[in-house]
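Newbie here. two chains, one complex. Structure please?
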Amino acid sequence: MVNAVNTIRKISEGAEADIYLTELFGIRCVIKYRRKKSYMPQKLDETLRLRRTRSEAKAMITARHAGIPVPSVLLVSRFSVFMEMIDGTMLYELDGKLPRSALKYSGKILAKLHNSDIAHGDFTKANLMMRKDGSLYVIDFGLAAQTNSIEEKALDLLLLERSLGEEFGTALKEYKRFAVSGSVVLSKLKEIETRGRYQERSLTTAKE
Amino acid sequence: MAVIGIESSAHTFGVGIVEHGKVLANCKSMYKISDKGMIPSKVADFHSKNGWRVIKEALGVAGLRIEDIDAVGYTKGPGIGACLRTGQLAARAISVKYNLPIIPVNHAVAHVEITKHLSSTADPIALYVSGGNSQILALSDGDFKHYCVLGETFDIGVGNMVDVFARSAGLKPAWGSTVAKVAENGSYVPMPYTVKGMDFTFTGLLTYATKLIGKEKIEDIASSLQDTAFSMLCEATERALLLTKRSEILLCGGVAQSTRLKSMLESMASTHKAKVHVAPNEFNADNGGMIALVAEKMFGAGYRSGLDSANTDQHYRIDKVEIIW
C-alpha cells in the first residue's frame, strides 16, 4: 500500500478479492485486493492473481478510453486495483420493474464494450450500478477479457438475458443498434442456446 | 423396511442393503482394469457373472433373506450403458420374482446423499468428483426441488483425466492412487489453468501434461497436474460457497478418496469458516449402499412405479431428478 492512504476499511469479501474503501490524495476510492489463496501452489496463485489484476485494470482502462462509464483506475499495484468510488445502487437491488432508460443503457454499454473488443464475463444486474441522476456504470471487470471472440460476447448477452428475464428485449434492441457486429453475436447466442448443455442444465440458481 | 440397492454404472458391481437409514451391508466386486482401460461389453460380462454372488454375499452380511427385502433400487444412470443394463436386469429379475417395487436411482444423487446422510449436514453445497463427473451442486428449493448444477466440467471428469495421464505415462492401475504416490515428492511446473466462473475444463491440462512426459521429471508432472486440477476445483467451489452463502461442503465421488484434494479443499474452506465433510472411502467409491439409501428415501416418500419406467439412461443428469424427500 502507498503512504497516501490514510484510513482503510474493508467493506466486502468476494470469492477471490476483498474490497476496501479509502481515500487517495483526497479522492474517495475503492481498492480491490486479490487475496492469497493458500490452498494453491504459491507460484500458481501468484501468477493467477498477477494476471487477473493486470487484465482487470487493462480492460477498465480500455473501456474508459472508449467512453464507457466505468470507474476510473487510479493506481495498480501487484495484486490491487485502486479505482474511483461510484455512489449508486446496484440494479439488482432495485424493486419492481427497472427504469426503461437503465435497460436501454445496459444494452448500449454492452455494445460499446464489445465494439472495443472487451467481453465483460459477468454482465448482470449485480454489476450494473445506477447513480442518483439515472446514469449507469458497469463495474467488476474481474472476469473480463480483451478478445474479439464472438462466443465470449454472446455469453455476455446470455448472462444479461438470464439476469434481466422478460426485460431483456429493451436492452437487446439497444444492443443491436450500437453493436458493430451485433447480428453475428446474436446468431451465436441463438446457437449457444440450442446447445445440449444449456438446454439441459437447469437455469434456476440455488436459493440464497 | 429393508431395501436392497444395486450399483453397476462402471467397473464396480455393488450391492448394498439399508434399513431405516442404516447401511447393513455394502458388498462389491470390481472389474480388474487392464492397461487399456475399460471395454464396456467385457465389464458387463464380468458383472453378469459375479452379480448374483455379490447379492447373496450382501444378504449374508446383513443377516437377511431375500424375503425380508421390501424394495429394490438400482442405478438408472449416468454411466456406461452395457454396465447399467446388467444391474438393471438384476433388479428387474428380483422385482419380478419376489414381487417387489423397483426404484430407479440417479448415481450422482446417490453419491451426494450418502455423504450428506453420514455427515448429517443440513444445507451444504457439494463437490462431486469422479471418473466421469465433476460438478458443484446445491439443493434448490421451489416447485421442483432438485440439485442445481452451479458449475461443472465442460469436457471430461477429473478422474478420467488423471487415469488417461497415468496410462500415457505407463503407470500401473489404480491410477488415481498411483499418480498421487508418484506426485508425493514433485515440485510445481506451470500448467494451463482453466476456470470460467464456476465451470472448468481439463483436456487442455491433460494434453499439456502428456506432452511433458519424458521432458520433465515424472514426479513433477504428476504433482503439478494434480495440484493444478485440484486448484481449479477448489477455486470454483470457493466461488459457489460464497455465492450460495453456505457453510458446509460435501466432498463426494471416487476422487474424494484423494487426501490431497481433501486437504486443499479444507484449507480453502477454513478461510471462510466453512466445514468439509467426506464419507469413509467405501462410500466414495461406487457402491450399492448409496443406491439402497436413496431408494429407501424415495420409497419412503411415496415413489411408486412399474417395470415400464425401470429403464436406464446413460446421460441421466442430476438436475433432472426431483428430490421428493
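Moderator note: The first strand of chain B starts at residue 2 and ends at 7. Chain B has a mean pLDDT of 94. Thread marked as resolved.
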